[in-house]
Amino acid sequence: MITPFFALVYAAVVSAAGSALTAISVNGGPWDTTSTRPSPAGGPPVLNVLAPEIICGYNGTIPVKGVTTVVGGKSNVTVLWSPDSHIGPNLIYVAPVPSPYITPVTGLKWTKISQQGISIPGGGGTGWSSPLPGGQYHFIIPPTLPPGPYLLRAESLVLPNGGNFKTAESFVGCIQINVTLTPPGPPPSIAVPFPGAYSPGDPGLTWNLAAPPPPPYPFPGGPVWPSGATTNDNDVGDI
Ligand SMILES: *[C@@H]1O[C@H](CO)[C@@H](O)[C@H](O)[C@H]1NC(C)=O
Ligand SMILES: *[C@@H]1O[C@H](CO)[C@@H](O)[C@H](O)[C@H]1NC(C)=O
Ligand SMILES: *[C@@H]1O[C@H](CO)[C@@H](O)[C@H](O)[C@H]1NC(C)=O
């Protein structure tokens, strides 16, 4: 049971600040800020999961000059959110692209490779993946991801909060990456479109963030590839 006072506190926390995807690091290396497509600092989040902005956020169709090189199975990637002050799940997708500099970004096939929702079972409104330690989310590039250029879609969701919010808020951005050294192979067997992967009524988007029902959290966007996981799967801190 959540008191109105508590609900107000959570509302303040959840809506206090936006969040922008600012950088990527591979295996603990330096932060690369040149591969991240412009993501406005401080938000705003995307509220309509059926809008084109759900793909790569606002201005996500604007290419940048950098490309981050990763190796399937060997690159432990960290994406940086700044600030990351809100509560909620985190999700990572990749889509093969003819060129990392493509624009627009519609019509791509997105494969979910990592997700983390409730990280402390029983933690209530504070048991979520976000806020992330230092704004950093870690995941491994799948070992069988075929080489080539991809857009990496990182998403940090804020869910409806005890009735204070009617809809999920998506902080989302894209990073230009190049997968190298892995053997050529078939494309991932799981892929979804954006827009299209999410519907406004998805259980994972209407979940009560502040007073969540018992886990598992029903992630939107289908299973993770290649594991097929529908619960936490980020290779770090899984429960
Ligand atoms: C998108 O980029 C344009 C041009 O740089 C800028 O004026 C606008 O504020 C940006 N949009 C958002 C939502 O930040
Ligand atoms: C990835 O890097 C993070 C940060 O250094 C670390 O906590 C995590 O254990 C690493 N994951 C794997 C699977 O090595
Ligand atoms: C990706 O890596 C391959 C192999 O090193 C290289 O030939 C190619 O030019 C790179 N592509 C981009 C866009 O960086």
TrEMBL record:
Compartment list: Secreted
GO cellular-component term (any): extracellular region
Domain of life: Eukaryota
EC numbers, comma separated: 1.14.99.56
Residue ranges annotated for the Auxiliary Activity family 9 catalytic domain, each copy included: 40-211
Catalytic activity: [(1->4)-beta-D-glucosyl]n+m + reduced acceptor + O2 = 4-dehydro-beta-D-glucosyl-[(1->4)-beta-D-glucosyl]n-1 + [(1->4)-beta-D-glucosyl]m + acceptor + H2O
Keyword Chaperone: no
Keywords of this entry: Carbohydrate metabolism, Cellulose degradation, Disulfide bond, Polysaccharide degradation, Secreted, Signal
Single Gene Ontology MF annotation: cellulase activity
BP terms from Gene Ontology: cellulose catabolic process
Biased composition (Polar residues): 228-239
Annotated spans, Disordered: 218-239
Pfam families: AA9 (PF03443)
Segment forming the signal sequence: 1-16
Record's comment describing the protein's domains: Has a modular structure: an endo-beta-1,4-glucanase catalytic module at the N-terminus, a linker rich in serines and threonines, and a C-terminal carbohydrate-binding module (CBM).
Annotated function: Lytic polysaccharide monooxygenase (LMPO) that depolymerizes crystalline and amorphous polysaccharides via the oxidation of scissile alpha- or beta-(1-4)-glycosidic bonds, yielding C1 and/or C4 oxidation products. Catalysis by LPMOs requires the reduction of the active-site copper from Cu(II) to Cu(I) by a reducing agent and H(2)O(2) or O(2) as a cosubstrate.
Protein name: AA9 family lytic polysaccharide monooxygenase
